[in-house]
Amino acid sequence: MTNVEIAQHFALLADLMELHGENSFKIKSYEYAGRNLKKVNESLSELSIEALEKIEGIGKAIAAKIFHLSHTGKLDLLEKYLAITPIGIVEMMQLKGIGPKKIAQLWKELEIESIGELEYACNENRLIELKGFGVKTQENILQQIQFIKQSANQFLWSNLEELANEIVEEIQTTYPTLLISVCGDFRRKKNTLEGVDFLVATEDTVLQQAIQQKYIHYPVHFEYCTTANFYVRLLQLSSDKEHFGFLSFKTNLETNFNSEKEIYAAAGFPYIIPELRDNKLEWDLVEQHTLNQLIQLQDIKGVVHSHSKYSDGANSLEELALYCKAQGYEYLVISDHSQSAFYANGLKPETVLQQHQEIDRLNQQLFPFKIFKSIESDILYDGELDYENELLQSFDLVIASVHSQLKMSEEKAMQRLVKAIENPYTTILGHLTGRLLLSRAGYPVNHKKIIDACAANNVCIELNANPYRLDIDYSWISYCQEKNVLISINPDAHNLRGVHDIRYGIYEAQKGGLLQQNTLNALTKDNFEQYLQHKNRP
Question: pTM of this prediction?
């Protein structure tokens, strides 16, 4: 089991215990465990009970439960509460803004035991008069139910990656002579999708049935073709209709090819990665001879936007810096949460000064590697940043992000964001819409006006590489480049593993045609430092 899966078990246990009115002290201990376990760098499944006991907030009893869960897949206490809770009630736990106590109220007072029953009750206005609810809460619940319906049977690309790799490896090991590849939306790295598509070169119906049967319970789909037609069919299944149709017009696809590159060469074009095969940007990049300038993972020189133990990160500043240096990066931008983010242990002004002193000391030790002083400043409800100007001036750069009061009209969101962009201390606008893929729709914004405002104020835009965010969406990258707005591909790392989320941002950036020269953290340390010095500051 992954650390996140283990943490989710404990978070659900805490919710169910609260639902059933259990001891608040025990509930808080499981909540705390759920939060902390996500931050652990090592695989929890590989740790001994003694090692688990050393994790912050984990005592002997919870350590034993983690060990048992990671080795058996079961958390006995959770099983007990699941057995006495209707499955529909458990599903209602995913709704934001109504915690276990309110769900218990709906269950006991209105006898609602499923999301469907809850939707019906909302449509009948039954929640309006219920104590603690009202019109706004009812409207919010209906919006969330609609979002859940639209997201049903969908997966994040990152959550299917391991499954896809395992299946390819298993089939190649079992049938070494078979040609097999992922294809379709998965190969094009669509953010969310229903499953993984595979192409297998075999006409043997018995073998096809064996493959189908082995993976019948997984979110996968298999296509079959001849060995001679494999690469043409692979290209077709990994491109949209217009892209493939254009290539078909340019070359004879009845010919046998040994790779997709051969097909493009026969059509007179350089190889185009699947992420770009949607007939929107790819031919412009070919015509402008910029396809070879597409951003690559190895182009990223610095880790921008990361959190340490100073706020809600799992690692010390030194641990994070040493890790980034060991990965070959030239610099780290530490961007802990600002003081208004009390839920994330946001930094008080005196803590900021303490962190800056540690950064100065570490920069002497780690030279030529450099830690830049930054903060992820909350954009307050009125659009102001979270510190006085005197303190904001002490940072090398400021990432401005919205974290609270997310339920906004477009007018309010725009007023709030544009004011933050116009603040002379803002260097980067963080996760532009606040979306969480498959979990939370972002607040409504006019992307063009936001990008125009960033262009006018020399503010970069973050492509938050966390696979749950991928925000700004790739579809707006070309407009950013048109307006000369730099993109910073940031992992928003809260532990060492999180640093590697940069690659998900790279995939998103490539889909949007982002070029190396338009990527902020593709700058070398010296050039990055020079950029910060030349940025307009008061």
Answer: 0.83
